[in-house]
TrEMBL record:
Belongs to the cation transport ATPase (P-type) (TC 3.A.3) family. Type IB subfamily. It comes from Pseudosulfitobacter pseudonitzschiae. Residues 27-91 form the HMA domain. NCBIfam families: ATPase-IB1_Cu, ATPase-IB_hvy, ATPase_P-type. The gene is copA. Its main location: membrane. It comes from the Bacteria. It is found in: Cell membrane. The chain crosses the membrane at residues 109-132, 144-166, 178-196, 202-220, 354-376, 388-412, 671-687. This is Putative copper-importing P-type ATPase A. It is a multi-pass membrane protein. GO terms for molecular function: ATP binding; ATP hydrolysis activity; copper ion binding; P-type divalent copper transporter activity.
């Protein structure tokens, strides 16, 4: 087993690995919940699943209408059965239909909306004639025609509300569609009763108007949530579902689910790669923008890695699968984003608690309103209207959407700018930071080697290429990038020695690529030794990473205090700090001391954002208030970080802070909007000043206002 570690402070590895394991608890099963609409549904779904033995966590995302479940022992069928017993429709997520350009739910709502509008306008024509003084016989005829139009229309158009309400009632549970359904049915039922008893008044137009405006609210809410597409949904949409598997008889089209590690796959021109794999064709040109944010084509040669989701921009090529299905980079990244979108920050937790208390309180309030108006006014019909208005107008949908809508929009916005947010609480913590500490090598600077070609002959280059491509350390990558294209030497037993370098066995004996002191040479930088030959120095220079100056200046303008904390020598840190105008510069700091330094800053009241890429940064990344790692970072650093930068530039780091601050501000705003709305709406409904129709309009407007406010995150630049 190859151990990858090339940073001197390897003492951080156990701690980093432990923290990384804690951080990456991606959901094992994701289920679609198409019928959930309110905060009461969230609590019921999560309680139902968490009560099952074997479920360690269950989190509902109301905006995306799905639940992420962490379980190692239960199947999706068992979870679906439990949710159906609890009154919820549930389906395993199928990426094949996750985003195929169609919107069946939206289309169904539009059809019902059109039918309700058509029926409402026709019934209103008869109502105008009746109000204008029609004779008794004409009035009764128009009432019967109105009933013939209204009753089928109400039963058909009210299905989204009736189905949801019935699912809740059959398991003795209440949701927000129960009072809505009650209001629609009561208006239609009372009208039909009046018609049968030759009454003067019928309210079919009110029943249809109520249904029509509730459907408008439901459809606009659906469109708003769909437009606030999550990054996880976008990533899942990149998956392909069939592939050209190479067999002895040529290429054969098979479902991707049938591919296994080791299979050879043909990638035609213009097609996305279905698996992670190793290139076995001489070369390939792909678009990797989904992962790096860079639109420039990427050229790969034999032996290089290609990843699921990349698009073939050149001639057809072949890959040998190294990861399929849930193990691909694309699926793992989508799972991490899904986990972040479903995470609870402090505002979400507050909203959840408020909604859980709020729902039963509202039902009691409506009951008291009915009793009060019935006793004081003596008009049961008016009392019933007031009670129904209270139930509708106080729907906590806005409260349940207040924070998740912002989080989902913010994470999607950041992903489109090249940031992978792994933790839902990261945005809240980033918004609180006032200090940013950078690692030097690999973060603010990247190593570059220009002398390798001149110093090594072709045979030595092949050995260096074989050793360098076995390591993810920035120095190894720099050496590999400087080498000309060619075949690597055949080596065995390649292993990376922590803090030293990488070594293996060739026909010439032991070959090593690493620090001069490890090679027994009299130079400090990296070098190559083959067998018993003297070590060859491979001098490296460091260049400023793209966007580093822009990032530091932008963060300083946002009020953050920049600093450098590095394990390198002071003589190497000082020129860089001077170039970037950074006063706080700490050199020669080991991994444990980096952790201690950040802890000392925290003890002094500072909220630190750490940006680092090495194994010796992993403990510090985990200890920081918030942490960021570039995509070139070692696995332990990426795992410990809250956010990963997917491209090679640091220029957008200030945008990260701006979006985080805007998300926190908008969450507070949404919470305030929901609270103020209910503070005003409840007394109005209790006073009998809001009919069920006006209550339906007000409820829809409140939810749409919260969603529209969340979408303002897209304006942050």
């Amino acid at each position: 087993m190859t151990t990858l570690s090339a940073c001197p402070a390897c003492v951080a590895a156990p701690l980093a690995g432990h923290i990384a394991q804690q951080e990456i608890d991606a959901p094992d099963i994701i289920l679609s919940l198409p019928t959930i609409h309110c905060a009461a549904c969230i609590g019921s779904v999560e309680r139902s699943l968490r009560s099952m033995p074997g479920v360690s966590a269950a989190r509902v995302n109301l905006s995306l209408k799905r639940v992420s479940v962490q379980t190692k022992t239960l199947s999706d069928a068992a979870l679906v059965a439990r949710l159906r017993d609890a009154g919820f429709e549930a389906h395993p997520m199928d990426s094949a239909v996750l985003d195929n350009g169609k919107d069946p739910e939206g289309q169904r709502l539009l059809v019902k909306l059109a039918v309700a509008g058509f029926a409402m306008m026709n019934v209103m024509l008869f109502s105008v004639a009746i109000w204008s003084g029609a004779s008794d016989s004409t009035r009764e005829l128009f009432h019967m025609i109105s009933a013939a139009i209204s009753l089928p229309a109400v039963l058909f158009c009210g299905q989204p509300f009736f189905a949801s309400a019935w699912s809740a009632l059959r398991v003795r549970r209440l949701n927000m569609d129960v009072p809505i359904s009650l209001a629609i049915l009561l208006a239609a039922g009372m009208s039909f009763y009046e018609v049968l008893n030759h009454g003067l008044h019928a309210y079919f137009d009110a029943a249809l108007s109520l249904t029509f405006f509730l459907l408008i609210g439901r459809y606009l809410d659906h469109r708003s949530r769909r437009s606030a597409r999550s990054a996880a949904r976008d990533l899942a949409a990149l998956e392909v579902h069939s592939a050209q598997k190479l067999t002895g008889d040529g290429a054969r089209t098979v479902p991707v689910s049938e591919l296994a590690v080791g299979d050879a796959v043909l990638i035609p021109t213009g097609v996305r790669v279905p698996v992670d794999g190793r290139l076995i064709s001489p070369e390939a040109t792909t678009d990797r923008a989904f992962l790096t944010g860079e639109s420039a084509p990427v050229r790969s040669i034999t032996g290089n890695t290609v990843q699921a989701g990349e698009i073939n921009l050149g001639a057809p090529f072949k890959v040998q699968a190294t990861a399929v299905g849930a193990d691909t980079t694309l699926r793992r990244v989508a799972a991490m984003v899904e986990m972040a979108e479903n995470s609870r920050n402090s505002y979400t937790a507050l909203a959840d608690r408020a909604a859980a208390i709020y729902a039963p309180a509202v039902h009691l309030l409506a009951l008291f309103a009915f009793i009060g108006w019935a006793v004081i006014g003596g008009d049961v019909r008016q009392a019933l209207n007031v009670a129904v208005a209270v139930l509708i107008i106080t729907c906590p949908c806005a409260l349940g959407l207040a924070v998740p809508a912002v989080s989902t929009a913010a994470i999607a916005q950041l992903y489109s700018k090249g940031f992978l947010v792994k933790s839902g609480t990261a945005l809240e913590r980033l918004a609180e930071t006032n200090v940013v500490m950078f690692d030097k090598t690999g973060t603010l600077t990247i190593p570059a080697s220009r002398a390798v070609v001149d110093l090594l002959n072709p045979a030595q280059q092949a050995v260096a290429r074989a050793l360098a491509q076995s390591s993810t350390h920035p120095v190894s990558r720099a050496i590999l990038a400087a080498l000309p294209e060619g075949e690597p030497a055949v080596l065995s037993g390649v292993v990376e020695v922590p803090g030293k370098g990488v070594q293996g066995l060739s026909v010439d004996g032991l070959v090593q690529l690493g620090s001069g002191s490890w090679l027994g040479a009299d130079f400090d930088g990296p070098g190559l030794r083959i067998g018993s030959d003297p070590a060859i120095a491979l001098p490296l220079t460091e260049v400023l990473r793209s966007g580093a100056q822009t990032a530091v200046d932008g963060l300083r303008a946002l009020g953050l205090r920049p600093g450098i904390i590095s394990g390198d020598r002071l003589s190497a840190v000082t020129p860089l700090a001077d170039t970037l105008h950074i006063e706080d510069r700490q050199a020669g700091i080991s991994a444990t001391h980096k952790h201690d330094q950040l802890q000392a800053l925290a003890d002094g009241g500072d909220r630190v954002m750490m940006v680092g890429d090495g194994l010796n940064d992993a403990a510090a990344l985990a200890a920081a208030h918030a942490s960021v790692a570039p995509s070139s970072a070692l696995d332990a650093a990426r795992n410990a970080a809250d956010i990963v930068i997917l491209n090679d530039s640091l220029a957008d780091l200030p945008l990260l802070i701006s979006v985080a601050r805007a998300a926190t501000h908008l969450s507070k705003q949404n919470f305030t909007i929901a609270a103020v709305y209910n503070f005003i709406a409840v007394p109005v409904a209790l006073a009998g000043m809001a009919t069920p129709l006006l209550a339906a309009i007000a409820m829809s407007v409140s939810s749409l206002t919260v969603l529209a406010n969340a979408m303002r995150i897209r304006r942050v630049r």
